[in-house]
UniProtKB/TrEMBL annotation:
Pfam families: AsnC_trans_reg, HTH_24. InterPro entries: ArsR-like_HTH (IPR011991), AsnC-type_HTH_dom (IPR000485), Dimeric_a/b-barrel (IPR011008), Tscrpt_reg_AsnC-like (IPR019888), Tscrpt_reg_AsnC/Lrp_C (IPR019887), WH-like_DNA-bd_sf (IPR036388), WH_DNA-bd_sf (IPR036390). This is Lrp/AsnC family transcriptional regulator. It comes from the Bacteria.
Length: 157
């Protein structure tokens, strides 16, 4: 899909405030409300806008531990990737999972109430998953930047 400058402005505003009214968005991007709504729907239907969500302050809801975990798998276990992928879908502690390059197979972002909860997750679920060979945890001490927003300047040529 080819995005023009107006589409990029719409995306910028929606990333900042997904609850902005169509009228306010239309005013900001200099479109009629019907044209603006048509463009937003086109962006949604094309999958450019995947979904809308609220961003939760994890500390305020009691999730004290944020960790990045590298998981290395044993390749001699049959269907290790499929089994691991299926298992991690059942773990609410895992808020992000990625197949990566390097020594490990996966990088997980794990959120937990406290260190005891995190430890229980690692020992009782992660290590007990068939095929897991090694786990390397990195506990976040301080977050400097954490966003899902895409700077639309990256999309311009």
């Amino acid at each position: 899909m080819q995005l023009d400058a107006t589409d990029l402005k719409i995306l910028d505003y929606l990333q900042t405030d997904g609850r902005i009214s169509n009228q306010e968005l239309a005013d900001k991007v200099f479109l009629s409300p019907s044209s603006c709504l048509r463009r937003v729907r086109m962006l949604e239907e094309a999958g450019v806008i995947h979904h809308y969500c609220a961003v939760i302050d994890t500390e305020k809801v009691g999730l004290e531990v944020d960790a990045f975990v590298q998981v290395t798998m044993r390749r001699d276990v049959e269907q290790w990737h499929e089994n691991f992928s299926q298992a991690l879908q059942q773990w609410p502690e895992v808020t992000g999972s990625y197949i990566i390059t390097g020594d490990a197979n996966y990088l997980l972002r794990v959120r937990a109430r406290n260190l005891k909860h995190y430890s229980s997750f690692v020992l009782e679920r992660l290590y007990k998953t068939a095929g897991v060979l090694d786990i390397r945890s990195n506990i976040v001490l301080q977050t400097l930047k954490d966003t899902q927003q895409i700077d639309t300047a990256l999309l311009e040529e």
